[in-house]
Amino acid sequence: MFKKIVYGFLLILLALSVYLYISVKQPYGIIALGFVVAGLLSLALLKIKWLKVGLVVVFSSGGLFVLSAGYYFMLETNFKREKFNIETAVHFEKNSFEEALAKSKEENKYIFVDFYTGWCPPCLHMVQYIFTDDQVGDAMNEAFVNLKYDAEKGEGVELAKRYNVRGYPTCLVLDSEGNVVENVGRDRVPKKEDLIAVAKKYKRY
């Protein structure tokens, strides 16, 4: 009876780990899966009772701890994502990436793409204090078709892979074919002056 209860508990942890792995683009889910699978194997294969019990307790506790941290991270990130949904001076397109490429060709403009994540403080700073600046907005709206993507949601996931985005924020200038022309700021967060300068650089008269 006790063994069935432990199996049931571990299977619940397994299901929660799989869901977390699918939902959060962070290592919490895969680490939790490792703990839970190790616990299941210990329960099924070990013959020495005290060793079996000890390892099952260790692995299940480890899995539960990582799951708790992962789900807290997920909830906190979802809450923070709402803070990105504010009106900015920079006009960010709501269309798909392919539609943005078409608009870029039609209007003879380069594309500016901001890749961010909900858990990234510098990304939120850019949205709240740089993209809301009227001077930045005027310069970028005139020069670019502007896009922003959460790199862990929707179309942003595949686009971040396509452009090998590793850190946040990552701001790219693309041509009308979707080729990278410049990584703005590269290893540092772009400032107001950087964005105005890059807009002037790529503005087509």
Describe this entry's structure for a reader.
By secondary structure, the protein is an alpha+beta fold. It folds into 2 domains: 2-81; 86-202, Glutaredoxin (3-Layer(aba) Sandwich), CATH 3.40.30. It has 8 helices and 4 strands. A 4-stranded mixed sheet has the order 2-1-3-4, with helices on both faces.
Q: Which features would summarize this protein structure in a list?
A:
205 residues; alpha+beta; Glutaredoxin; 2 domains; four-stranded mixed beta sheet; 8 helices; 60% helix; elongated
Residue runs with pLDDT of under 50 for 5 or more positions = none
Looking at the structure, the CATH topology of the largest domain is Glutaredoxin
Distance between the termini: 78 Å
CATH superfamily of the largest domain: Glutaredoxin
Return the average pLDDT rounded to an integer. 91
**What is the annotated CATH architecture of the largest domain?**
3-Layer(aba) Sandwich
Range of helix content: 55-70%
Report the sheet with the most strands, covering strand number, pairing sense and barrel closure.
Answer: 4 strands, mixed
- Indicate the overall shape: elongated
